[in-house]
């Protein structure tokens, strides 16, 4: 891996993990009361659970697309958003967060061992670099919504 690749990968990793100018998912969910996971504030189209699940599904899809020519993306938008406001139980909540973290780790591993500027063979011009930027942007956007929901629920710092 050359110096430029190392530098870009390091910066992308920081962006993907949150921090600096962005709240991480871990920080956005820190000390969230379990009973607030499924509340949809008035005039809001989703709950914190729905945002977490959406992050999980979309991130999984971007990871799988980046590495697997046979991958079929979920149907947009129906299969990217859970219909239930709240997780079935605490195990569902923990499982979603565990997959988000493991998929993110796997994507970062892919970043470190790929030619990030080479087009993905089964794509339409996408590169691992583009997928990393899209993933960071997508997660950052929805993590900010989680913070906004927590503020509406009077459960933020």
Automatic annotation (TrEMBL):
A Pfam family reported for this protein in Swiss-Prot or TrEMBL: DinB_2
The organism's place on the tree of life at top rank: Bacteria
Protein name per Swiss-Prot or TrEMBL: DinB family protein
Organism: Mucilaginibacter frigoritolerans
SUPFAM superfamilies: DinB/YfiT-like putative metalloenzymes
Domain DinB-like: 26-146
Alphabetical list of Gene3D superfamilies matching this protein: dinb family like domain (1.20.120.450)
């Amino acid at each position: 891996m050359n110096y430029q690749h190392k530098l870009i990968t390091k910066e992308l990793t920081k962006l993907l993990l949150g921090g600096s100018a962005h709240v991480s998912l871990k920080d956005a969910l820190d000390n969230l009361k379990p009973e607030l996971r499924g509340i949809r504030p008035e005039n809001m189209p989703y709950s914190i659970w729905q945002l977490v699940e959406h992050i999980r599904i979309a991130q999984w899809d971007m990871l799988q697309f980046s590495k697997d020519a046979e991958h079929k993306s979920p149907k947009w938008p129906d299969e990217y958003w859970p219909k239930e406001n709240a997780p079935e139980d605490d195990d569902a909540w923990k499982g979603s967060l565990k997959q988000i973290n493991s998929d993110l780790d796997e994507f970062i591993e892919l970043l470190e061992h790929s030619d990030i500027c080479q087009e993905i063979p089964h794509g339409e011009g996408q590169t691992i670099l583009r997928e990393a930027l899209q993933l960071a942007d997508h997660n950052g956007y929805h993590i900010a919504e989680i913070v906004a929901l927590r503020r509406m629920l009077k459960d933020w710092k």
